[in-house]
Specification:
Blueprint (H helix, E strand, L loop, with lengths): L7 E5 L5 E2 L17 E5 L33 E4 L2 H5 L4 E6 L2 E2 L4 E2 L6 H11 L7 E5 L3 H13 L3 E4 L9 E2 L7 E5 L6 H11 L5 E3 L6 H7 L1 H10 L5 E5 L4 H16 L8 E7 L4 H7 L10 H10 L18 H7 L5 E3 L1 H15 L5 H15 L8 E6 L4 H7 L3 E2 L4 E2 L6 H11 L3
Parallel strand pairs: 5-16, 8-9, 8-12, 9-11, 11-18, 13-14, 13-16, 14-15
Antiparallel strand pairs: 1-2, 1-3, 4-5, 6-7, 10-17
Helix pairs in contact: 2-3, 2-5, 4-14, 5-7, 6-7, 11-12
């Protein structure tokens, strides 16, 4: 089973200029101003492939050149029990994780697999550079699993305190290496360590939100919902660390609207964060494009206090043109927040009503829906999409033996670029 390389161009979100993707571009090469770029697909009406293609059933709107093995698409279903509890008539849950009864078979139990299969599918087969990914947890597990399965050289940079997120059904292929800033570090420290590698020609930056493949992999959650519902939802809920998934949801909305078969709605975006780490929530409450200034140590302290640790990005793509601020403005969006206690109660409620355990970040999403209903940001009659970004992990670990991974290298993010490149290169025998 194969797919043809997707035909697309890239567009500068600030200037609107369209240009060819000459290979792993993360920005407009002719514009030095800071801006995201967006994929503009030649095929304006998406053709959904059958489920045997996994996530690549949405390949028409993914900037890829090849299929990788073992992928699974997000699964959307209409909620009954949670919808009844919240008095909602049209609540649709898009679930990413391990729940075989509904067809969800993501072995890392996170929607970060959607990113990894898209980003790695964008890599040319003759690529000889080593991909570098920084992560707070779930992204690391997803990229490690996908690259291990498909023999793609990868360096994961993850805080040592978050190594518990790196569990797998089987040991990783030797093509995957893990480096860590030491205990007491956070996601931003992992980003800083990864950045040292990207100065070397041997390594290549994955790109995060700047990589159109990452965003359009995440956008498959909205494509899944639109396929099942038959139309664009009225409102979209998701907990955010970087906001990349919510940006992707908006971009997917624009493509579905242009398709013409799913209505012409612009769905209201309602992202959410975990108290006390709420920089984007705080900025949006002031309708400010600029994130609030805070002391680095205070930011690190707050990030380490949240239960949904994957939501701890201290430098998210919020302010950049084409980023989350612009998406919220364009959709008349709102922002919500949840405490650790509130998200725990929401996770328990979801498992009791829907029948599957979910990640803490998904609990934040549910809290945001409850609060948005109380504050009349959405109405019970509307068609609502709840993006449950991870679940089934506890069940997966009950059903299968799993192995944990140890760091291949622990280094201070203050280490020189030369030292980091030399020591990590040695892990690959370079």
């Amino acid at each position: 089973m194969e797919i043809k390389p997707t035909a697309y161009k890239l567009q500068n979100c600030l200037s609107g200029r369209e240009f060819e993707d000459t290979g792993w571009l993360m920005a407009d090469p002719e514009d030095s101003r800071n801006s995201l770029i967006r994929a503009i697909y030649e095929k304006k009406q998406i053709e959904f492939k059958d489920d045997s293609y996994g996530i690549y059933k949405f390949a028409d709107w993914m900037p890829i050149g090849r299929m990788l093995k073992n992928s699974c698409a997000p699964i959307t279903y209409k909620s009954k029990k949670l919808a009844e509890k919240l008095n909602l008539k049209n609540l649709y849950i898009t679930f990413s994780g391990w729940w075989p009864e509904i067809g969800a078979k993501m072995r890392t139990c996170s929607f970060k697999e959607t990113e990894a299969y898209s980003v790695c599918g964008r890599l040319p087969e003759n690529n000889n550079r080593i991909l570098v990914v920084a992560s707070a947890g779930n992204t690391a597990r997803a990229f490690a699993q996908v690259c291990s399965d498909n023999n793609i050289p990868l360096v994961i940079a993850i805080p040592e305190d978050n190594m518990g997120a790196l569990w797998f059904k089987e040991p990783l292929n030797d093509c995957v290496k893990v480096i860590c800033p030491p205990k007491g570090s956070d996601y931003f420290d992992a980003i800083a360590l990864a950045a040292k590698l990207n100065a070397s020609e041997l390594f290549m930056e994955e790109g995060g939100a700047k990589n159109v493949a990452r965003r359009d992999g995440m956008a498959t959650t909205v494509l899944s919902a639109a396929q099942v519902i038959g139309e664009i939802p009225d409102a979209y809920f998701q907990a955010v660390g970087s906001g990349t998934g919510t940006i992707a949801a908006y971009e997917s909305n624009l493509r579905l609207k242009a398709d013409g078969r799913f209505g012409d709605k612009i769905m209201k975006l309602i992202p959410s964060q975990n108290v006390p780490f709420t920089p984007m929530y705080d900025a949006w409450m002031m309708r400010s494009r600029a994130l609030p200034q805070f002391d680095e140590e205070d930011g690190r302290r707050r990030a380490l206090m949240i239960k949904a640790s994957v939501l701890s990005n201290r430098k998210p793509p919020y302010s950049v043109p084409g980023g989350l601020f612009d998406a919220l403005v364009a959709t008349n969006g709102e922002f919500q927040k949840a405490t650790n206690g509130e998200l725990t109660e929401a996770c328990d409620m979801f498992e009791e009503l829907e029948g599957i355990d979910i990640h803490p970040a998904a609990g934040v999403t549910i809290v945001s829906l409850i609060k948005a209903l109380k504050e009349n940001q959405v109405s019970p009659e509307q068609t609502i999409m709840l993006n449950i970004t991870g679940g089934g992990e506890q069940r997966f670990k009950r059903e299968f033996r799993f192995v944990s991974t140890k760091p291949d290298l622990v280094m201070s993010p203050e280490s020189s670029s030369a030292e980091v490149v030399e020591r990590v290169s040695a892990l690959f025998g370079k």
